[in-house]
Amino acid sequence: xxKLLKTSIAGTVxxxxxxxxxxxxxxxxxxxxxxxxxxxxxxLLPALGFFIALTLWAFVxxxxxx
Length: 66
Hints:
mainly alpha
């Protein structure tokens, strides 16, 4: 497995956890940065799309012979 594929899978998992669970909201609350909560979707959803696309691209590139 290539380094790019491992990195993109890790990024996808991290962003998915932040998107679909309140982990990031709890972290921001603990840090006193709850004013950033309304803007999370503007960042997290495109980041999730990017990492999913990167994972697919790395998987295809890794599965080619040669």
